[in-house]
Amino acid sequence: MDLDVQNQPNKNKDLISHRGHREHRERQEARSQKTEVRRQKSEESKQKKNKLPTVYCLLLTYCSLLFLIACSSPPPENMVYIPPGKFIMGSAENIDNEKSFEYGFAKPWIADASPHREIYLEGYYIDKYEVSNADYGKFVKATGHRPPDHWGKDSPPDKIANHPVTNVSWHDALEYCKWRGKRLPTEEEWEKAARGTNGRLYPWGNEFDFSKANVSQNQSEETDTKDVKSYENGKSHYGVHNMVGNIWEWTLDWYKPYPGNTYKSEFFGERFKVFRGNSYSRMGHFPKDKYERMIKEFSKVTFRFYSDPSGRFHDVGCRCVKQSDE
After folding, report:
1. pLDDT tens digit string along 115-170?
2. Taking the CB of residue 298, how many other CB atoms lie within 10 A of it?
């Protein structure tokens, strides 16, 4: 008994020491477990962060592919895509507008084409070429519509099959475009397709060039329409042919003043429709310098001419547009 009593403190020390080691190990294990939990959470957080850019990248790639597919879709046959965006509409030229009256013309050169302004248009398609006699012949055959008088029958002569159709009224042109699932261009659409976005005066640039359009060079020259695919060197920025010369082209719009225009005309209103682009026709008897001046002014993409929508003329035809689905 006495020996046992004497050894009891040592046993207690051993027990305390053992318990202390065990508690120390338990604390270490607990810290290790906490450290492991924190490490796992940190890894999970990193993985989540890494997944987000991956998802965004995949979405961006998908959207980009959709955009590229849409942009690479071919336009309708023989049409050109005019992309959405702003362009310069109208004229800011400071020229002798009143001089036109000396030439016997009914209005100042470009007084009705001001002001010069920036306009936004959605994307659309426009015919690459003027509507040909052959094109219009298909319409006449399919619908029984009145043929142009100069054909002499229900189909065009072979020698002018690929020339632009003329002797069609605004109403005729409108019906043809509707039959094709299209419509006539507005003045804005016509002008953007003709001049691009940099405000050029002619489809090819700012300097007039007789060799780039089917226009009359002198009053004694015999002139006529030419193939709608002619004058490759005079096409517009977008690749549209004969936006100047060959024939005038009906637009959808009434002859009205532009917003902010100060020119007063008795012809403004809903009486006359606008046509654009000049034609092959001669313009009367003038000295050479005056004659060339008239051709240059009439050939500017800003120049506006007008007529009764029921009128049919030997040098007026059309081309059509179609709204883009994009």
Report:
1. 999 999 999 999 999 999 999 999 999 999 999 999 999 999 999 999 999 999 99
2. 21
Q: pLDDT tens for residues 10-50?
A: 544 454 455 555 665 666 666 666 666 677 766 666 665 55
Domain end, chosen from 51, 73, 95, is at: 73
pLDDT at 249 > cutoff 80:
yes
The whole-model pTM stands at 0.77
**Helices 133-143, 170-179: crossing angle, 10 deg rounding:** 80
Residues 11 and 83 in one domain: no
The sign of the dihedral angle between the CA atoms of 226, 230, 235, 239 is: positive
Domain count, the chain: 2
Note down the domain range covering 58: 1-73
Check whether residue 61 and residue 179 sit in a common domain.
no
295 and 153 in a common domain: yes
**Looking up tokens 């597919």, which residue turns up?**
69
Q: 268 with 257: CB under 8 angstroms?
A: yes
- Consecutive H or E run containing 121: strand 117-121
Q: How far is CA 235 from CA 216, 229, 242, in A?
A: 18, 10, 6
Asked whether the predicted pLDDT for residue 54 surpasses 60, the reply is no
Clarify whether residues 218 and 318 are in a common domain. Answer: yes
- Domain CATH code at residue 308: 3.90.1580.10
Alpha-carbon distance of 46 to 9, in angstroms, equals 55
Report which of 278, 251, 268 is spatially closest to residue 192, judged by C-alpha positions: 251
Q: Which residues contact 270 (CB under 8 A, 6 or more apart)?
A: 254, 256
Alpha helices in the chain (DSSP H): 2-72, 99-102, 133-143, 170-179, 187-195, 288-298
Q: Which of 29, 58, 73 is the last residue of a domain?
A: 73
CA atoms within 13 A on the CB side of 114: 14
- What would the mean pLDDT of 258-269 be, rounded to a whole number? 94
